[in-house]
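Annual report, structural modelling task.

Input specification for the magnesium ion complex:
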Amino acid sequence: MASGEVTRAVETLRRGGLVALPTETVYGLGADAENELAVRRIFAVKGRPSTHPLIVHLARREAMTQWATNITLAAESLARTFWPGPLTLVLKRTGKASDAITGGQDTVALRVPNHPLALAVLDAFGGGIAAPSANRFGHVSPTTAEHVRADLGSEVDLVLDGGPCEVGLESTIVDVSGETVRVLRPGAISRDDVARIVGRPVVMGAADADLRAPGMLQSHYAPRAGVCVVPAAKLADEAARQVAHGLHRVAVLSPQPLTLPDGATHIAVPADAQSLGRQLYATLRSLDEQGYEVIVVALPDDAGFGQALRDRLTKAAAPRERR
Ligand code: TXA
Ligand code: MG
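The model returned the following structure:
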């Protein structure tokens, strides 16, 4: 790891700049979490509503008590088991977490990412780094440094290249701020993984229809092309339907070759959910670049990593309000 890069990143953060950082999930757009002006710049650069709270990234679990209070046994066990890793915990905040980060809520989201470069920067910086995914608001998250440059370009002071992200989908967000443990966003760590550690049932989804909770916005994680999610057995039928509607740049994602009408193209993708998750966002971006109008993809099984894939694909397929 080039330590010069780490030093530059720390200097940039200290003077209130923005640093794009690789993590094991997706690339983040980082700022000093205690510098309110820097945090506000994240929202401006992303085009993200200021009520949408950010995750504070930490170098180690022990730093959790600086940012959060009322840390329950469930929270403690989850942090011990899964950090560093693709898990974000929502907890009651301390005064250190400003309204700029939390969107005015009384909770804060915390995560220790599992990427050597991110951990080196966090360790050398010493404080928390507030970072959302380093994409324009509503677009698919970046899983390479190139994706970050394509979305945010010169508006980021420094982009650290840590290679393609190992997980490829955003972290599992678990709300441990109340009695009931809730998964607000599925990720590589499944609901069952969480339930096993906390030793009681875990609820999927937020307590109320709060717009600030992830997933409540419909058109998230979306490429430019339309996305159509259907049962695997219906892929060819759906492609034919799209072509019959006059579309002639239809991409059909499937592990197996299919018999497709003219105008539809088979795009080979991995059969297992984990590998598909790793390359999903890169594939969606690449299909956009190639000018596809519609992407037809099979609905994954609702188990393990498949839960996260289903969530992202369903949101990519949801009606788009803002474009
Ligand atoms: O894997 C990830 O989590 C990546 C990497 C960079 O760590 N980050 C990421 O950040 O996906 P972002 O901002 O794109 O998504 C974070 C989600 C948002 O949907 C936000 O609503 C939710 O976390 N969130 C943040 N603070 C929250 C809070 N206090 N309560 C509920 N949800 C919160
Ligand atoms: Mg995001």
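The pocket of threonylcarbamoyladenylate (ligand 1) is lined by residues 23, 25-26, 28, 52-55, 88, 90, 102, 105, 107-109, 111, 113, 131-133, 170-171, 173, 184, 212-214 (CB under 6 Å).
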